[in-house]
């Protein structure tokens, strides 16, 4: 303890010296070996202190265990004394009862001879004597029974005495065992205490030796720190000189910066002149590459197939309800975005299409997949994009969208406007829009003055075999605001009703017809392209939709036209000689888009919930059949000439100007079609059409 106290004092003195050294303004020696050794020695000292604390804890545990065993031994001794006292009392009680029994037996033996003598001597006497004799016999019998009982009690007492002797022997054996265990525990405790004492002494000696070594190392570290402090002062003076030199350089930096800026400006001016000299050559190469890119782009779209099929799965909404029928039954392949899996009646069914969009896909993602087809419309190709699926699957949302998140229709026109603006220096384009719907097998104009007027599909009188719709209104659009007005006007005239499956169910097939006419200003090449965007009415089961009356008639016409579309696809797939396009107004109007002269894409919309798996299975099977149809490459519609060189066509005032639908504006040799004897109409690049409604 004296030595430990001395070491503590020495450590305090060293710590005071360290505090003094730290208080000095010199920079600390962070990478010194002595500081690392000092930290290691401190760690070792803390470990030794922890070991001493652990040994003390073990010693206290052993003392506690010895105290517990001592208490148990005292308790056993008390129990033994109690057992001996109880045994003595029991022996005394049994001995008293034994003495009482012996006395009773002796008294009974003393009384028995007179009785026997009376029995033997008195044999015949009077009735009183006989009565007394019977009483004596009864008393004798009673006494004999008492003697037998006393003998039984004596026997039981002897057995109890014997068991008491056995218990005494067992208790003495337990006492001997406890005494031996106590002696053994006492010996173990002494041995453990002795070993702990030796460990403590050894640990103290080792700690003392380590402390001496550490103190010696600390002294050496202190000497090294002093040496480092002496060597740091010249380095500090050097750093001060460097700092003063940098300050002088910073004062002269603005002048250097101005000189550098002047040289850089001269270099940039020279580079700009070089760029301007090469600009014309680059522009010529760019136009050549643009033509090549257009050619490669159209070839790529053609090689992908004329009818491409993509699928889009709508998300689960609150209108689907809750429960097992509203669970998700559609899954996707994480490695292949063209595979979709459907769980139908407990069996998984897989389908492969050109592209599959999950519920997380945005409107922009879907549009990026179809925009390649839309841009080919500017180059003079006919393009048809139609949405197919059950009612409530999201077809109208994909095609039309909302004001904040528009669909394919509005995005397509915006893309056409951007492409037209990029080519405005070389081409002049005119974009016109028409909208129609097929309601209960009746074709109606959504942009006309009288939307309820019935229209008919006719063959072009020029003998080209193409179709047009006389009386279909056509608007020329020049900006996004014009598009919004047309869509708003057409949307108000479209037929939608409430059903059990969809709050705003489309009860008709809607067609948006976009015609793009272009003229190359340098060559006079004229192109005419059509973009047909079709939002088909949803197929539905009458039992599910709850359609009655007029809704039932609408559902029957919708299902009939979609069935006719399936028949057309089946005929095209099997390459039949006759394709039944005329079985429905829908298929008749889509004849140009499905007969091999157009680039066609189908968007199949499916519902992911369990209760609609039958309709989803039918839609995906139909999509696979459509995907297998080969229509052949699309044809570009272009010819040399100019708009001003066309003939003046006159029309009769009594007839409304016939505007083509589907391919009405694509008649060979002209940008429009006409019938003999009609009113005259002059075609100009600006596109004389009806003004937009306000």
Automatic annotation (TrEMBL):
ATP binds at residues 389-396. Residues 306-629 form the Kinesin motor domain. Its main location: cytoplasm. Keywords: ATP-binding, Coiled coil, Cytoplasm, Cytoskeleton, Microtubule, Motor protein, Nucleotide-binding. Gene3D superfamilies: Kinesin motor domain. PANTHER family: KINESIN-LIKE PROTEIN KIFC3, KINESIN-LIKE PROTEIN KLP-3. This is Kinesin-like protein. It comes from Vicugna pacos (Alpaca).
